[in-house]
Design brief:
This protein has about 350 residues and is of the alpha+beta class. It has 10 helices and 12 strands. The chain has 2 domains: about 120 residues, 3-Layer(aba) Sandwich (Aminopeptidase); about 190 residues, Gcn5-related N-acetyltransferase (GNAT) (Aminopeptidase, 3-Layer(aba) Sandwich), CATH 3.40.630.30. It has a 12-stranded mixed beta sheet with strand order 1-2-3-4-5-12-6-11-10-9-8-7, with helices on both faces. The protein is globular.
Amino acid sequence: MSSIQFVSVAELSVTDPRLTFITVARRQMRLPYLDIDWSQEPDASLRKWLMNTSTHTHQHYHWLVSKDNIPVGWLHLRTNNITDRHILSADIYIDPDYRRQGLARQTLRFGLNWLADHDLLTDITRFHVDVSSAGSPPALREHLLNLGFEITYTNRQSGAKIQRYDLDEIKQKAQRLQDSAESKGYHFQMIENGNLDQLFCSADDFFKMRQTTWNLMPTEDAGSEEEIYDNAMNEEWYKSIHDGDMAVMIVSYDQEDHPVGLSEAWFSVDNPYILSQYDTGVISEHWGNQLGITMKTLLLNHLLQNYPQMSKVQYWNTGNAGSNEHMIRINNVLQYQELYNQYCMEVDLDQMVQYLG
């Protein structure tokens, strides 16, 4: 008879070869449109992430799922430390060759029982899972809807193919947008790898602006989104920049050097084929001045002109709320195309436990 084993990732060494299964599966799930043999790519940063069980915002629990000692799946459960404390979030992956054997249900049952045995479900009332329109089994979303799950948030993942851009055209467009912004009293600054000593403002003013712009973003009730961005999250973000990846940030200021907006781009050491754009935001008093599209265009031009690693990048990616029509319009102008939607789905925990049996 076949046997199923669940091994806590926290009990493994960061160099354990079995972790390769997880790091490959995770990238396949999130980047199904890239034709890359992830088993041949670096994964040190992902391995370190798997070992980090506690952050300011979340507690993480990872298990490697094996059948007859062959890795066949991965389970990631996450509880929230700030907002949405009542939600348990789950990521689960089962190798396609081992699906339709009840392994997903057995794995989730194991995870929930483990949390219950360790008194970690006391305040949990909702169960959350993300379903991708590209990386998840095609029928999964409809199956979950039939079970009573609700879609609470839709994250639109978009990408622009770097090779399509004409460098001279982007340079000219960036200059036009910058000239227009400067005529209104704004100016911009590039910051690499969180070197906040270079800021035209104090670090406190910068973090306050970053917190304000984050909390202005659409916050549909999703377990994967924090509705409050506090100082501890600022510190965690700052430290994460020095974790092997490279971050380049553009900050916009008003005439008195008050920070009013920012946008970030990240190069991942584990995935040189994607340039990720994050957290473009502007304080509401300065909306309507095209600062969002100006910052993203200036940042793209800066990277294309100055960073040799851009030659390996295939996609310039970003994600935003499906309800954020303003940012979607900006992304359309920048030649982004929708890659897939990520549906955040929730159900009462009791109902999930009953289904698992």
